[in-house]
Amino acid sequence: MPDPRHPPCGWFRREGRRSTNSSRRWASRQDMIGQLRVALSRLGLRPGEYSGDYRHLQKLYESPDPWRLHSPKEKRRFELTCKIIQRLAPSCPDLLELGCGEGFQTEHFARVARRVTGIDLSAAALARARHRVPGAQFYEGRAEDVRAIVGNQRFDLVTVCEMLYYAPDAARILENLYELAPRILVTNHIKQSRRLVSLFEGSGWRRLGDIQVGRAIWRCDLWENAEIQKSTGRDLSCEASAPPCRPSLLSCCC
Fold this sequence. Notes:
By secondary structure, this protein is an alpha/beta fold. Helices cover 41% and strands 20% of the residues. The protein folds into two domains: 13-60; 72-252, 3-Layer(aba) Sandwich (Rossmann fold), CATH 3.40.50. The chain is built from ten helices and nine strands. Strands 1, 2, 3, 4, 5, 6, 7, 8 and 9 form a nine-stranded mixed β-sheet that branches. α5 (123-132) links the parallel β2 (113-120) and β3 (137-140). The chain starts with 8 loop residues before the first helix and ends with a strand.
């Protein structure tokens, strides 16, 4: 008869498996709760419903990666954006990323620019960004205050990716960027970009080829100053008013 004070070895294995399975179920349940909380928080950011209150965006970062930027789709978008940058500015000494969030795209930008500076309004997001990309410089603040934040610093390129449609005054943000760099690259999800089209019709603006990953498409717009226009022999003031055409796609069907 087995001694009750000394359970058989199989008992320990069974109990260990039960404990492991219980821990996995608990972790999975907590992950589902976290995803649901983020999804509910993002409801108020749908087109036509977002009020422009930045506190709503800050609250999202109570949970890490609320936009799921670690996904293969987003990583591929980052890679294709970097290809555009390499084509526009093969040697980019200084890049400013507006709306850097937790540094997922910053990590990719650091591979195509010697120095990267990121600005975001969320302290929680910036703490994760500094951990993810320790070699980059990060500032906390609103995009509208970018000139006051960076002071006398100037850059070779400013990127504004997936954030302009959350700004209460997108035109003001762009106005503040014109003196900071000779080039501004703006990307927006194609559906969200429709209400911003008028911002990219002025002198110096032109539409680049879209970025496409699977069924997702992002519109890309580029502004270049007069000096860049002259050096490339392109009259962008005429180009901006030319009839629209269907741009080529930088694509990855996955």
